[in-house]
Amino acid sequence: MGNFSIRKSASVTDFLVQVLDFSAVCAGGWTAFYFRFGFSDQVVEMPSGERLLVVGVAFFAALFFGKVYRMWPGGSLAAMVGRVSLGWVITWTALVVLMALTKSAEMFSRIWVVSWLFLTLVSLWMARVLAFFAMASMRRSGYQHKTVVLYGDSSMLDTVRARIGKSNWSGFDIVASVVPGDGNDIAALDTQLRPDEIWIALHMGDQANLEAVLQSLQMSVANIRLLPDLRMYQILNHGMSVRVGIPMVDISASPMFGSRKVAKAALDYSVAIVALVLLSPVMLGIALAVKLTSKGPVFFHQKRHGWNGDEITVYKFRSMAAHTEEPGTVTQAKRQDPRVTRVGRFIRKTSLDELPQFINVLQGRMSVVGPRPHALAHNNAYVQQIPRYALRHKVKPGITGWAQICGYRGETDTIDKMEGRIKHDLFYLEHWSIWMDLKIIVLTPLAAIENKNVF
Q1: What percent of the chain has pLDDT over 90?
Q2: What are the tens digits of pLDDT across the range 53-81?
Q3: Fold for the domain defined by 146-229
Q4: Which of 127, 131, 132, 99 lies closest to 22, judged by CA?
Q5: Using CA of residue 172, residue 173, residue 176, residue 177, what is the dihedral sign?
Q6: Residue 379: its H or E element
Q7: How do residues 222-280 score in pLDDT, each as one tens digit?
């Protein structure tokens, strides 16, 4: 019986993961210290003050990361790494602020403190990966498995099964499914199977059925959980806000507000400045190549819609021969388009033509990551054809975006292609995080190489 409780309970493994994180922070502090002092001619022993600081901060960090451990069932490795990284950065920042307020910073080596930040991040990543795969292995071996009985609408249950199927290490085993009207008795199955969990998935408005099911399960010892109607879940996923003391669902509100807006701006300006400094030789070379190989200006600029639908001017390296079009008409580049120059074909294929948009970022008109801005004529046409199209203007347009790394880059010659792009843009708005922006930035060069839809 004791062994059964250990196999069912997550408390022991959560504690072990906390110990692992405590050890990772300590290891980062010790390694940083000896990286700073231990390679000199004299062997330096870490003073008691530094040892006490490392242990104290590691203990606080392990407690602070507590919310991470509640995300184990079905959570992704990327999400866990992201949360523990954010937790450590917040902890380290709090330490530095505390040092400044107490005027104790001069007592410690600045190189050591900064090295501690980065070396602990590496240690935590390694610990999180180790814990993740250890948990997966334990659950595949039968530890921490929980049996689940599903009750509700068949299509909603199919979605639940698919999610569990993709996360077979999550520890949930579906032992039975009941669809209302199929003749199976949920209470009888509960008595027979004694499941750990019962998940009820019913549509909105099915209140009578829900009350009947809960009444029949009043003697059950299982954890009974109600899955919201997936349509309502999509709405609630937009987030909540409080206005005049009343909680409201944010159907089309911008995800950029408060600290989110500050974090997004900090990332944008940092990346834009670094990119313009490092890529300035490349940009100079492209400018010379454009100027020397075709007549016309180096830069192409065009009016597009930005945040809240305001018109902005977007810059690009000119990739086509200078030409004019009818007012209100914008013709997308096509395969073997004669307007595209030889240099233009290369810089379009590699997205190098968009490098001047880092200037747009510094101007505050664009973001590094966000929905790509469309020409005014395209916006005016598609906003009438695609539901929720205008919601993409709830954030600044980006140089790159979720749609682009998922293959929706280049020509959108059919309504289906544009709908696919908008679907990914809205996914980005609903799931935005700094970690998602960093992921998109890292994956953008690979997406630019692999994409075959840019002419």
Answers
A1: 12
A2: 888 887 877 766 654 444 444 456 676 77
A3: Rossmann fold (3.40.50)
A4: 127
A5: positive
A6: helix 376-382
A7: 888 887 665 555 555 555 555 545 555 565 667 777 778 888 988 999 999 999 999 99
Q: How are the residues of the chain apportioned to helix, strand and coil, as percentages rounded to the nearest 5?
A: 55, 10, 30
pLDDT at residue 236, as a whole number:
53
Q: What are phi and psi of 340, to 5 degrees?
A: -80, 130
3-state secondary structure 149-212: EEEECHHHHHHHHHHHHHCCCCCEEEEEEECCCCCCCHHHHHHHHCCCEEEEECCCCCHHHHHH
Torsion over CA of 37, 38, 41 and 45, rounded to 10 degrees? 90
Q: How many CB atoms lie within 10 A of CB 49?
A: 11
Distance, first Cα to last Cα, the chain: 66
Please give the Cα distance from 250 to 239 (Å, whole number).
5
The predicted model gives 394-419 an average pLDDT of 83
3-state secondary structure of 61: helix
Structure pTM?
0.51
Cβ–Cβ under 8 Å, residues 201 and 152: yes
Alpha-carbon distance 401 to 409, whole Å? 9
Domain boundaries, the chain: 2-140, 146-229, 258-450
Q: How far is 269 from 127, CA to CA, in rounded Å?
A: 32
